[in-house]
Amino acid sequence: MNNVKNSKPNNKKVKNNFAQINLESFLLELDNKISSGHYKISIYGLGHVGSPLAATWLRSGACVIGIDKSNKVVDLAKKGKTHIPEPGVSEAFSEGIFNKRFFVYSDLVKASRDSLLKMICVPVLAPDGSADLMAVKTVTKEIAKGLKKHDIVSLNPSVPPGTTEDLVVPILEKYSGLKVEDDFYVVYNPERIYEGRAIEDIESNYPGIISGYGKKSLIFGAKLFSRIYQRGIISMSNIKSAETEKLFEGVYRDVNIALANELAIYSENLGIDFWEVRSAANSQPYCHIHRPGVGVGGACIPVYPQFIINSSKNLGIDSKMTQLGRIINNTMPKYCVKQALKLVRSKKYTNLIITLLGLAFRGGVTDTRLSPTYEVIKVLNTLKVKEIRVHDPLIENDDLITKFANTSFYNNFYKSIEKTDLIMILTDHLEYKTIASDITNIPIYDGRGILDREGYSNNVYSVIGLGKYDNILN
Fold it and tell me: In CATH terms, are 37-237 and 304-463 the same topology?
C-alpha cells in the first residue's frame, strides 16, 4: 500500500519536471530565434504606434512584417520610409530592407501564417473621441485564419478594459479552431510612447507593461518583450488591469491639466500671475501643477478619460472627477477666444482677420487629431469673423481646414500675419517662441504661455493665467 501511495507523487514530480524542461527549452529556442533573426514578427498597422514598434524590433535583430491598409503607407514602407516624422523609424526600415529583415505584406492572413508574434497596432479612435474597435475586430479575424500552434498575439493600442479578453480572444478561438493557453498565447502590451521620441521611450525611457491571458502567455510575453524594453518588464496579474493602467496615465494628466486651467482662470480674476505662482508652488516636491492651455488634443489624453467614463456608466458608477476634467478642458478654446478678443479694439467681429499659430495638438509634432485649434475655429465661426488664417511650421496642408467657412491654411508665416488684427498662439512649437522680432503692434494672445514677455506691453499682449497686478520687483 505504501508503495502505491508513493508512486503518485513521483509521477507528478516527473510530469512537472517534464513540463518545466519543455518551458525552458521553448524559451531558449525563442531567444535563439530572435538573436539569429529567424523570429518573424508581424505588425498590423504602421501608424504612430506600429511604426516605432516595428523599428524597435528591427533594431533588436528580429525579422518584421509590416501591414497597413493605406496604399500610401505601404508604398513608403517598401521604400524604407515612414509617413510619420518619428526619428529613427525610416532608418530602421531602410536597414531592415537592406538586410532582408523587413518585409511589407498586403495579405493579412499570409502575414499571420509567416510570423510567430502578431502585434495589433491599429487605431481605435473614432472622430468623436470614443473607442472604435472595428479595425481591431477585422485584423483579429484575419490573424486567426493564419494562426498556428505556439503563436503569440499581442494587442497594443489603448483600449477600454475588457477588450482583449471579451473581444480579441473569442474571435481568435472562433476563426482558428485553436484554444488560448493550450495552443496559442495572448498578451496585452500597452504602448507608452511620446511622439517625437517613440523609439527612445520604448527602448530606454520606460519599462514595458506586459499582461497575459494565462500564466504561459505572461511568461512568453515577458520573455519576448524584454528584448526591446531595456528598462525591464512590469508583469501585471491580469489583462484588464494592464488595459486600465494605460488609461490611468492619461486620466491623471487630463485631470491635472484641468486643475491647472482652473487655477489659471482664478489667477486672472485675482489679478496675479499664475506662472509665477506655479513656479514657486512646484518648488515643493509634492506639488506638480501642470501647464494650462487653450485645450487638450491628440489621440491619448482627451480620449482615455472617455473610455473610463463610458466603462463607469456600464458598471453603474459615476466618475465625477474624470468627467469634470473633461468639461473644464473642453471649455478652454471658447474661454481663450473670449480673452484674446479683449485685445482687439474693434468689437465688430465681422471685420476681423485673425491668425491662429499652430494646428498640431502640441509642439514638435504634425499630429492634428482632436487639435484644440479646430475648436477655436468653430468658436470664431460662430462669431462670424471675416477671415481665419491658420499657420503651422511643420504641416504642409490640412484637408479639414477647407471645411470651415472663411478659413485658410498658410505655409508662409509672414503672409499669415499680414494685415491681421489678432494673433493667437495655439501650439507650443519652438518656432513660435521667438516671434517678438517679427511682429510689431499686432495684438498677441499666448494660449500656451511660451513667449518671453519682455518687450510686450499689456495693450498688445496677453497670456493665459496672467492677471494685471503691479509688480513691486520692477
Answer: yes
Query: How many other C-beta atoms can be found within 10 angstroms of the C-beta atom of residue 59?
Result: 17
Three cell numbers, residue 421? 488684427
Residue-wise pLDDT tens digits, 41-50: 999 999 999 9
| Contact indicator for 152, 183 with CB cutoff of 8 Å | no
Domain over 37-237 is classified CATH 3.40.50.720: yes
Question: Which helix (DSSP H) or strand (DSSP E) does residue 424 occupy?
Answer: strand 422-425
Domains of the chain by residue range: 37-237, 304-463
**Could you tell me which CATH number the domain at 304-463 has?**
3.40.50.720
Which strands sit side by side in the sheet containing 422-425, from one edge to the other?
Answer: 407-410, 387-391, 353-357, 422-425, 444-446, 461-463
C-alpha distances (whole Å) from 179 to each of 90, 176, 438 are 37, 8, 65
Q: How far is CA 349 from CA 13, 234, 284, 391, 443, in A?
A: 83, 55, 44, 20, 15
The C-alpha atoms of residue 466 and residue 474 are separated, in whole angstroms, by 17
458: Cα separation from own chain's centroid: 37
Encoded amino acid at 444, one letter: I
Beta strand extents in 107-255 (DSSP E only): 117-120, 152-155, 185-188, 208-212, 233-235
Q: Residue length, the chain?
A: 474
CA dihedral 66, 85, 195, 126 (to 10 degrees): -70
Q: Indicate the pTM of the whole model.
A: 0.88
Q: 47-94 pLDDT, tens per residue?
A: 999 999 999 999 998 999 999 999 999 999 999 999 988 999 999 999
Cell 521611450, residue located = 201
Phi, psi dihedral angles at 424 (to 5 degrees): -120, 125
- Please say whether the beta carbons of 101 and 63 come within 8 A: yes
Nearest CA among 392, 424, 421, 425 for reference residue 409: 392
Q: At what angle do helices 239-270 and 274-281 cross, to 10 degrees?
A: 130
Give the distance from CA 222 to its chain's centroid: 23
**Type of residue found at 86:** E
Give the whole-angstrom CA distance, residue 245 versus residue 161.
Answer: 9
The Cα 195–Cα 86 span in angstroms is 7
